[in-house]
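sry for the spam today, last one i promise. struct tokens for design, 278 residues
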């Protein structure tokens, strides 16, 4: 990546082979930024990079004079051993990072009858320890940014309150939120930190969901909202607003929420009863 254009940001996005991360990568590259994308599967990452190269020139990029690009870099966020190597690989492409968006994640729901520790470990390894490994990989390059850098982590509105079968996923996202808020306090001299809490977004992750997903939106729309919100570097960005408001109310009226959301044995359980449809 060339260092010649000062308005083009250097961005690293994890979990960018699909879903929200992919849409964010394509959006930022189309705006003329230099984007390094990570995930475990090179084919998926390469496909996103090729998709961008094949797209017609974006008018926004043309206007700013920046030519964005996307570079794939395989990184399994659960692999603590590869953190140092990943920093080195990142530094082959860029001397510094302006913006890091940690979107890699996984979701597994529990079955009634057994709180499967192996499932908890898988989910926590990716959604919580993966965040730690990613932050460690990014820190040396964030520290070299010529302007104040920005770290953002994709958590979830699911962490606002208890949902059926989401013991592992919700706990991992609640832990991720706390981690990021706490990192903010220790690195306030270095960077801004944003916790992103999406509601339901149509991605491969939600494709298997067997329950209604109120206010669900497309990944491209989610990416637009996230990138626009990140411009203001908020402490937290919760969206969509109606689902956020519903869950805030649920936090105030917990007894009502749990009475309505709790599963009868055999039922699939969903937030529909309280949140309603779009
Ligand atoms: N979709 C929703 O409704 C929703 C709502 C709230 C929050 N979120 C959060 O948004 C983030 C993005 O999810 P998504 O909906 O866009 O799902 P997605 O399309 O499944 O994207 C997740 C990405 O993470 C990557 N990934 C998974 N495990 C990884 C690992 N160990 N190391 C590196 N990369 C890994 C996957 O690629 P590989 O398999 O190739 O590694 C995949 O591309 C996640 O953190 C998710 O929890 C999603």
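last one done:
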């Amino acid at each position: 990546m060339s260092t010649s254009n000062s308005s083009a940001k250097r961005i690293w996005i994890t979990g960018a082979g699909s879903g929200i991360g992919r849409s964010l990568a394509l959006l930022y590259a189309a705006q003329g930024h230099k984007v390094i994308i990570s995930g475990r599967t090179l084919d998926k990452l390469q496909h996103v990079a090729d998709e961008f190269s094949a797209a017609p020139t974006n008018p926004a990029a043309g206007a700013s004079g920046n030519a964005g690009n996307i570079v794939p870099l395989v990184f399994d966020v659960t692999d603590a051993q590869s953190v140092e190597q990943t920093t080195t690989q990142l530094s082959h492409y860029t001397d510094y990072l302006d913006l890091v968006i940690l979107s890699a994640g996984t979701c597994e729901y529990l079955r009634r009858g057994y709180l499967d520790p192996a499932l908890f470990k898988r989910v926590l390894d990716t959604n919580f320890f993966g965040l730690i490994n990613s932050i460690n990989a990014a820190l040396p390059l964030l520290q070299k940014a010529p302007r104040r850098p920005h770290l953002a982590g994709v958590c979830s509105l699911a962490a606002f309150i208890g949902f059926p079968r989401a013991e592992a996923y919700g706990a991992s996202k609640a832990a991720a939120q706390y981690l990021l808020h706490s990192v903010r306090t220790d690195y306030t001299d270095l960077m801004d930190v944003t916790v992103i809490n999406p509601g339901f977004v149509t991605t491969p992750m939600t494709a298997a969901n067997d329950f209604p997903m109120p206010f669900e939106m497309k990944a491209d729309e989610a990416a637009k909202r996230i990138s626009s919100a990140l411009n203001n570097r908020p402490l937290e960005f919760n969206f969509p607003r109606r689902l956020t408001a519903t869950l805030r109310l649920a936090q105030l009226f917990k007894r009502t929420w749990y009475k309505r959301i709790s599963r009868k044995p055999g039922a699939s359980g969903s937030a529909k009863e309280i949140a309603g449809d779009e």
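DSSP finds eleven helices and nine strands in the chain. ok im logging off now
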